[in-house]
Write a structure and sequence with these properties.
By secondary structure, this protein is mainly beta. Helices cover about 10% and strands about 30% of the residues. It has one helix at about 30-45, and strands at about 15, 20, 50-55, 55-60, 70-75, 80, 90-95, 100, 110, 115, 125-130, 135-140, 150-154. The strands form four sheets. The chain has a six-stranded mixed sheet, with no helix packed on it. The chain has a three-stranded antiparallel sheet with strand order 8-10-13, with no helix packed on it. β1 (about 15) and β2 form a beta hairpin. It is elongated.
């Protein structure tokens, strides 16, 4: 619920978040509460969420108070997918150690079309293309090496 499910058509956004509406003609006190819910939802996208342990499929859309737009990925389990999210949702990730991101031409699109072996402090920005498909928009080595320095693994 909230930001991830809002419409780009203003008239369709009656529900600000669970329990908070933006009905036409609503009482001013209800507007306050609804706008506070909207602000909290928007701010979550810009704050660091709780660290996430690596897994085959990593959930980047957990709906809890710790949800954020930026996460540290811990652990060494190979990642083959990310959870389904509305197309356009972005996540910024920092890897705390070595793991493999497994390229998939549809569901986990990585630079150079190859697997990436991460090292501590590597970071990337991912964007959902919808239906469980994610594209890596940028990948940076923690050492400062250029994107061309992405090491492909086999």
């Amino acid at each position: 619920m909230g930001l991830k499910s809002w419409s780009r058509t203003a008239a369709n956004n009656v529900l600000a978040n669970i329990g908070y509406t933006l009905d036409e003609g609503m009482a001013p006190s209800a507007v306050n509460d609804s706008m506070r819910a909207v602000l909290a939802d928007v701010s979550r996208e810009w704050f660091k969420g709780a660290d996430i342990a690596s897994a085959s499929t990593v959930d980047l859309t957990a709906d809890s108070a710790t949800t954020g737009g930026y996460y540290h990925i811990t652990g060494t389990t190979t990642i083959t997918a990310f959870s389904t999210a509305t197309a356009g949702i972005r996540r910024r990730l920092v890897f705390d150690g070595a793991l493999i991101l497994t390229h998939n031409a549809t569901s986990l699109i990585l630079p150079g079309g190859a697997n990436i072996t991460t090292v501590a402090n590597d970071s990337c920005e991912m964007i959902s293309e919808g239906s469980g498909n994610w594209r890596c928009l940028s990948y940076s080595r923690g050492t400062g090496a250029s994107v061309d320095g992405v090491k492909a693994s086999t």
